[in-house]
Amino acid sequence: MSHYISIIMYHYVRDLKNSRYPEIKGLDIALFKEQIAYIKKHYNVISAYDLMDAIGSNADLPPMSLLLTFDDAYVDHFTQVSPVLDEQGLPGLFFPPAKSILEHQVLDVNKIHFILASVPDKTVLVNYIYQSLDKNRSSYDLEPKEFYWKKCGVPSRYDTAEVMFVKYMLQVELPEKLRHIITDELFKKFVSSDEKSFSKELYMSIDQISCLQRNGMYIGSHGFEHYWLNSISISEDDQRKEIDLSLKFLKAIGSDLSRWIMCYPYGAYNESLLTILKERNCSIGLTTKVGIADLEKDNPLTLPRLDTNDLPKNSNESPNEWTIKAISG
Ligand SMILES: [Zn+2]
Hints:
Layout: E1 4-10, E2 13-14, E3 27-28, H1 29-42, E4 44-45, H2 48-56, E5 65-71, H3 75-88, E6 93-95, H4 98-103, H5 108-118, H6 122-136, H7 145-152, H8 161-173, H9 176-190, H10 195-202, H11 206-214, E7 218-219, H12 236-252, E8 260-263, H13 271-279, E9 282-290, E10 293-294, E11 303-307, H14 321-328
Parallel strand pairs: 1-5, 1-11, 2-3, 4-5, 5-6, 6-7, 8-9, 9-11
Antiparallel strand pairs: 1-10
Helix pairs in contact: 5-8, 5-9, 6-8, 7-8, 8-9, 12-13
This protein binds zinc ion.
Residues 71-72, 222, 226, 265 line the site of zinc ion (ZN).
């Protein structure tokens, strides 16, 4: 028996080559199937209830326990992922951003992904943002463009300087209201003028989410508006409202709220949020901190996860560092 669990995080899982946005940063369905075969070979996939039971009773888990988690309720999770899980007899956990599902809006973070996937020459986007800065200088307190380029145009392990600039400017750097306005303009210009239809094609419907739940999948909270819940612009009251609205959504689809699982948007939380979660009987919180969770040491409300990219996507590959770590854990 063991007190370690590897919790794997997935976002887009799709037939990338045959999709309208092959450039979207997602996991190809063929590689997902390979990864699932690798996981079945080396791990024991457990359910949300197995983990909640173990945490509730301080019991141990089977050796090499692993949990499959899917963020943001993309329709891919219904059309591509759930048939694979069903065929393999594996449970999964799904975390819908409730407001997007209910009101058919597209999250800004998703809009940015599709803007980037729709414009091959990213300097077009950089220049558009520069022009927007000049246009909005009278209404917002903005820095010169050289300042922003120096701060945000820094290439990462996965992305070019231009891509990082667009992401960082629109996700973090600019004032929140302006970020939203520019993202919206770019989405309308380069992706779709019909956000509602796009949203319906991107996310699962309530019926699809309920269907997963009836088929034994676990549906948990991913907030209501998908905010950074540790942001200084979010008060404790706002946090409570976010959680309560997401729970109202879960209740409407028939979830048992005597114990439940929170998956923090962007992995972001703080002390006041943890207090609210305890008041509401939340038993597990999932972050984006990278690691294997240790039930003896970790706070159950702030468990680390691994990304799909941390495990091999080839069923025949020998155990990689994270698998070896779990074996020797
Ligand atoms: Zn999310």
